[in-house]
Design goal:
Structural class: alpha+beta
Largest sheet: 7 strands, antiparallel
Strand content: 15-25%
Order of helices and strands: HHHHHEEHHEHHEEEEEEE
């Protein structure tokens, strides 16, 4: 994934390295002033290119050349005498040009490799999103809160290809080393359905807040086993839910949750592929089960 600027920097760096090799061959020759002067211009051009590369600027060869000429003609040009005195020494010339040449070659290569790495990470994150199958509302069963509020329940339109290979999916993010698998992958229920609908239906995230309110849950600052772990994204929408099953040394909660159409896992509260912008815990003073009552419509 090399840009035009990267190619230009690579070519400039390679040119300086070739020039270095030529100087080493001609080390015993007397050059006069023309060759050292040209070498001063080459070194300034190379250092300018390196500066632009480090700043990440995308510049054309013409702009780079113009900037280099301005440096040579600027008040800083009195430094040219110092450069010229060094250029009388072939070893100093070789070190300066070789160092700049190597930097020009390595900077764009490293930058492009980092770009590829970031792109690969973006693809990995995208692959780590758990797909949601198309759903249809159940016409036979609804959930009922303690206040009598009905909660629609859903069935997935089964797609065996969407289930995919859970083992491969977990390996993408090294999840297999961070979670304990408690249940098989099924399409029958999602995380909310596992918590609120006996693991037999899908429940939509937007209905979780209704369940919490209608069933009189209270937010808890100190989670305990049996509490709900409710994850919300940056917009405030519920993205995931689970049940606290234990506490790690130091009090970090261990959460049991179903990951969409994947399996059921025991994990630390932060080790899950869902948005953790807003993680809160909820407790009910008397309920021993979080499952909704159900009512048959037929």
């Amino acid at each position: 994934m090399q840009t035009d600027a990267s190619v230009f920097l690579l070519e400039t760096g390679a040119g300086l390295l070739v020039l270095t090799a030529a100087l080493l061959v001609l080390a015993g020759w007397w050059w006069g002033w023309a060759v050292p002067g040209a070498l001063v211009a080459a070194e300034v051009c190379g250092l300018t290119a390196l500066l632009f590369a480090l700043l990440g600027a995308q510049v054309s060869p013409r702009v780079l050349g113009a900037f280099s000429v301005c440096l040579l003609l600027s008040p800083l040009s009195h430094l040219n005498g110092w450069f010229l005195s060094l250029l009388r020494r072939p070893v100093a010339v070789a070190v300066a040009l070789a160092g700049t040449g190597l930097a020009l070659v390595l900077v764009p290569v490293i930058r492009d490799e980092l770009t590829l790495f970031d792109h690969a990470n973006e693809l990995l994150v995208a692959r780590q999103e758990i797909p949601t199958p198309e759903l249809e509302e159940s016409l036979e069963t609804v959930g009922i809160t303690t206040t009598g509020q009905t909660i629609p329940l859903f069935h997935p339109l089964l797609d065996t290809e969407m289930a995919g290979d859970e083992v491969a999916w977990l390996a993408q993010g090294d999840w297999e080393y961070r979670v304990i698998r408690l249940g098989d992958a099924t399409l029958e229920a999602n995380c909310h359905g596992h918590v609120f609908a006996h693991g037999k239906f899908w429940v939509l995230g937007r209905h979780v807040s209704v369940i919490l309110q209608e069933n009189s849950y209270e937010e808890s600052a100190n989670p305990l086993p049996g509490d709900l772990a409710i994850y919300r994204d940056s917009s405030g929408m519920v993205s995931h839910s689970g049940v606290v099953r234990g506490l790690m040394p130091g009090g970090a909660p261990l959460v049991e949750s179903k990951w969409g159409l994947l399996g059921i896992f025991l994990h630390t509260a932060i080790d899950c592929p869902y948005d953790k912008s807003d993680l809160r815990y909820y407790r009910h003073p008397t309920r021993t089960s979080h499952h909704l009552d159900t009512e048959e419509l037929r």
